[in-house]
Amino acid sequence: MSHDAHSKLERLKADIRQLDSLAVAFSGGVDSTFLLYVAHQELGDKVLALTALSAFYPDRESNEAVEFAKTYNIRQITHSVDELDIKGFAKNPLNRCYLCKSNLFGVFNKSIEEQHIQYLAEGSNADDVSDYRPGLQATKELHVLSPLREAGLTKADIRLLSKEMGLPTWDKPSFACLASRIPYGEEITREKLDAVDVSEQLLIDLGFKQARVRHHGKVARIEVVADDLARLLLPDIRQQVIAGVKKAGFAYVTVDLQGYRTGSMNETITT
Q1: Do 193 and 60 sit in the same domain of this protein?
Q2: N or C, which terminus of the chain has less Cβ within 10 Å?
Q3: Has residue 199 got a pLDDT over 70?
Q4: Where does the chain have alpha helices with state H?
Q5: Whole-prediction pTM value?
Q6: Residue 136 sits in the same domain as residue 243
Q7: Percent above pLDDT 90 for the chain
Q8: Overall number of domains in the chain
Q9: Which residues contact 158 (CB under 8 A, 6 or more apart)?
Q10: What is the CATH classification number for the domain harbouring 249?
């Protein structure tokens, strides 16, 4: 895999070098950090990081994104966005991600016009075509580049290369916006987002690196990686989780025996 990953990296670099200037939609996650870093290596000060500040992403995520840009001396502009202002978004339809990305890329496209940047890119990778990803439609419609996907880079490739480059995100847990914790068709509210955010932060503070708290009304469905299930059920940990999650607003605290997996809310979608 190492040789294959490096050949894909060379293609990515070559693709980026052809661009006059580039803005990267930068969340601070594994993929967008890697893309921003490589783009900055290739294009220098012709690269701009664009970061959304939103209630749908915990402060720890946006803080890490700002810190990374400062550390590597990359120019960054932050935009405050409120997805609940988007028509139809709060109803949580199946195309929720499309509505969000259309709005966000619209904001970012205006920003790059003002900054005289030629292209906007986002960090989806080659694995992202396998799950239900309506947000990718917005990428196409708004002419946003997806250089990692074009180069065939998978999440495993990106983690491997990020580690070699010394990027702090190489082993960062995957993260998706907090709206993904609420089942499609159930209204998204700030209260629900806050309950999920507080509960997930508790799990992180207890040492569970990869955790999700899915919001099912009064029920919290906790996902941790299978290897962490036994630790989650240790009496002291279990009591702290129960107390903290109930304090966050849930009446019942449950554990998903299948463990953490991306897109578990998509498992009920029939196409």
Answers
A1: no
A2: C
A3: yes
A4: 2-17, 30-43, 59-71, 96-114, 135-141, 147-150, 155-165, 190-205, 229-232, 235-247
A5: 0.90
A6: no
A7: 87
A8: 2
A9: 30, 31, 34, 125, 148
A10: 3.30.70
